Amino acid sequence: MSPKDFLINTQKMTDFRPFRAFRYNPGKVDPRKVIAPPYDVISPAEQKRLYERDPHNCIRLILNAVETGDGDSENAYTRARDFFNSWTREGTLIREDAPAFYLYRQRFPSANGEELTRIAIIGRLRLEPFESGVVVPHENTLAKPVEDRTRLLKTTQTNLSPIFGLYEDESNQMTGLIGRYVQEKPIFEVQDDRDIWHGLWAIGDEVTTDAIRTAMSEKKVYIADGHHRYRTALEYSRQCDGKKAGEELSPEDFVLMALVAFEDPGMVLLPTHRLLKKIPVSDSKKALEALQPYFKVESMAPADLTQKLENEKDENVTRMGLLLGADQGYLLTLEKVDEAIAKMPAGKPDFWYKLDVNVLAYLVFEQLWDFPPSKWESNLIFTHSTDEAFERVCDGEAAAGFFLGAPKVQILRDMGKAGELMPQKSTYFYPKLASGLVFYHHSE
Fold it and tell me: Using an 8 Å Cβ cutoff, are 399 and 278 in contact?
């Protein structure tokens, strides 16, 4: 399917509904000790810390540890299911009596120390194929995470973490509907290890939930984070035959979704840097020589690289940093723009060719270094931390590192409206949505 196929039908309505959530019982556990980041940003060391923090931490659900002797009948996925069921029986997890939406507020310090606030509304969204035009992706996906999340969903029959979606709300319609709830007592509000506050409120009155459903019905949903989980849920819904007699839809036809307005003042994106386990050309000298016909290549101290990128940021110029070792730093500035575009995929909108992540993927990797997309998943490491990138290259864990700029949130809207996709792991929204807030079980 071509990315342009995402634009076929723009008339279908968005179906966003309240639901009967499972959630932690604050009378049984400390919410601060049981929430966790999304599974795909948790390192093995952090996984261990979360296991030790509380025996009911949701890490046992979203990223259960692999154990010696795991097989078809007992494994990380079956243990996640069994923990969910046992916690429900003992009252650690409780289920709401009636459907509700949830207001989720995150408060966090910005880079300059100012406190920012971001507000999401959590509900269940009817799954739609991308070609319907209702749900719009902006990134390609990797095969391995889809396989992993499929096994977890099939085994637990539960959406354990919300997908992060965006919608347009220039008139502040949704803000007017849900804003007053933050003045009420939350289900909980806790601060995590990264100084991020997480607050959760239930919105259960039918007048408001109906108004939210109506307001969202006319809006597209742009996936910000969670492409793998969305594709997993969509494919799973196609495989299921859970509809009762006479029913058009089943619980598997919906997915847990947290929606944030594009216009939210707390919207922050960080860059996602690329590390290569091995350089796909014979040596560093040849790697640089391949770049020089298109880029101005400036050698500089690695310590100065990221600051130089920040100081010379220009929307009309494509720049990136390259680290080839502890003492080999280079600032790459694309100079032969027309020649570069001629070597990249044809027929793209102008803004597509200016994105550093596209220039890196489709000019540097695919054309200049003969490193095609089919080999990316096995050879690329992604990180939003410049310190981690430097450390892994300098320690020899990675052979090279490319430092990219942070995209603007507008680019997701532009990519979606143009029916284009960025390479995998092109955006990193900060802060991540917490896991362990609410769970959507398919017994709904």
Answer: yes
User: Within this chain, do residues 223 and 278 fall inside the same structural domain, yes or no?
Assistant: no
CA angle 104, 265, 101 (to 5 degrees): 20
| CA 147 vs CA 44, 210, 231: distances in Å | 19, 36, 10
| Token couple for 119 | 């507000």
Q: What is the CA radius of gyration of the chain?
A: 23
Look at residue 416 and tell me if it is in a domain. no
Q: What percent of the chain has pLDDT over 70?
A: 95
**Both 228 and 303 in a single domain?**
no
Kindly state whether residues 161 and 31 are assigned to the same domain.
yes
Mean pLDDT of the chain: 91
Determine what percent of the chain is predicted with pLDDT higher than 90: 72
pLDDT of 6: 44
In a domain, 376, yes or no: yes
Better-scored residue on pLDDT, 321 or 326: 321
Tokens of 277: 């386990």
Where in 63-100 does DSSP place strands (E)?
A: 93-95
* Mean predicted confidence (pLDDT) in 14-36: 97
Mind listing the pLDDT tens digit for each residue in 369-423? 999 988 998 999 999 889 999 999 999 999 999 999 988 888 888 888 888 888 8
Tokens 């500035």, residue located: 333
What tokens appear for 233 in the block?
């849920």
The burial class, CB within 10 Å (0-12 / 13-18 / 19+), for 10 is: exposed
> Contact at 8 Å (CB) between 58 and 436?
yes
Q: 154-168: per-residue pLDDT in tens? A: 999 999 999 999 999
Instruction: Please give the residue range of the domain that contains residue 393.
Output: 272-405
- The sign of the dihedral angle between the CA atoms of 84, 144, 120, 3 is negative
CB 222 within 8 A of CB 166: yes
Identify whether residues 282 and 258 lie together within a single domain.
Answer: no
Cα–Cα distance, 218 to 100 (Å, whole number): 20
Q: Give the contacts of 404 (CB within 8 A, at least 6 positions apart).
A: 271, 272, 273, 274, 320, 356, 357, 360
